[in-house]
Amino acid sequence: MDELDILKKDWQKREIEHPKLSYNDIYKMIWKKSSSIVKWIFIISILEFVLPNLLYLLPSTRERMSIYYTNDSSTFFIVLSGIQYLVIFYFIFQFYKRYKEISVLDDARTLMKNIIKTRRTVKHYVIFSLSMILLTMSLFAASFYFDPNMLTAVYPNEIPEGLTEEKLRTIMAISFIVVALLTTALLALIYFLLYGLLLKKLNRNYHELKKMEI
Amino acid sequence: MSKDLEHAFVTELENNQNIVHKVCTLYTNDRDAHNDLFQEITIQLWKAYPKFRGDAKFSTWMYRVALNTAITLYRKSKRRVNTQDYESVIFKIKADEYDETEELQLKLMYKAVKQLGDIEKALVFLYLEDKNYTEISETLGISEVNARVKMNRIKKKLKTILNP
């Protein structure tokens, strides 16, 4: 008889020495809020879908956005944001579909796989969003450089002494690109840290199960 | 109707709470964490309850939900201060039932099991609960052969922990 079988004999007899919960204790518990990782993924994902779009509602952002529509590149930006919204709706639909597939009644491996799939949708969404931020900002920077109306729209004052218009355009374009890179990097860092921490255990266990199947 | 459902669920869980307590004991190290995990498992069981009814025995279904919650869904919700050596409380052996050597051996074994990884613990737990390999493989989503292979490895691992 090996160790585990000795343990088994004891285990079957054993009642865990934990205070037994009463009917009322359990009844109270079923109304408590879950703090499962699936719930967290849901909350964080909804925030990820909603927050960037809320930015457009701020008056200052809207004002800045109006620049898009007052210069030559406007059609381009309108089409771009149209495509962006289509893709966002596609991601939301995918996310919802996968989220619904998560069931605690599945076997452990399927459950983990479905959670990872749901998270992957959000990950792709985040990569898409960040690329869009980067792309929009770069296009913005480019139009600063090439479109003189753009500069006048953002910088209506006289050009400061010692600066040529071209220099000012270059400075504007470069600062836009730097800000774009920093923002994207920061958002990416926050995102990956957040999910890295949240899913550390799940990833570890999923890999262990997968390893068994090789 | 929903009152009936609540009543049926709470009664079943009250009667079968030992299964959940055992899972909590394996996966947590102090009383607060134990209660926290118990609560999360209860919530998950309750959420899944409408889908369960009638399908299988309540206890069979509990194993799956409880383990899924412990291995996958549960996150420690708060920082805790470790107040006491919890294992020694939970796995205390009643002195009149066992002789001293056996008591010590069992204690060491429980300690060794607690050192295993999450998935290994799940296998051991189902094994200790006298589940066969078909049930173990279905609960974890691995093949029966692999469940056996893994179990043998765990037994060896436990031996190494016990006799370093």
Relative strand content of chain A = under 5%
Largest sheet of chain B: none
Number of helices of chain A: 9
Q: Tell me the name of the CATH class of the largest domain in chain B.
A: Mainly Alpha
The CATH topology annotation of the largest domain in chain B reads as Rna Polymerase Sigma Factor, Chain: A
Question: What is the rounded Rg of chain A?
Answer: 27 Å
* Domains of chain A (count): 1
What is the 3D shape of chain A? elongated
Structural class computed from helices and strand pairing of chain B: mainly alpha
The rounded distance between the terminal residues' Cα atoms of chain A is 30 Å
Mean pLDDT of chain B: 83
Total strands of chain A: 0
Order of helices and strands of chain B: HHHHHHHH
Write the CATH homologous superfamily of the largest domain in chain B: RNA polymerase sigma factor, region 2, helix turn helix motif
Number of domains of chain B: 2
Percent of residues in beta strands of chain B: under 5%
Q: In total, how many beta strands of chain B? A: 0
Note the main sheet of chain A.
none
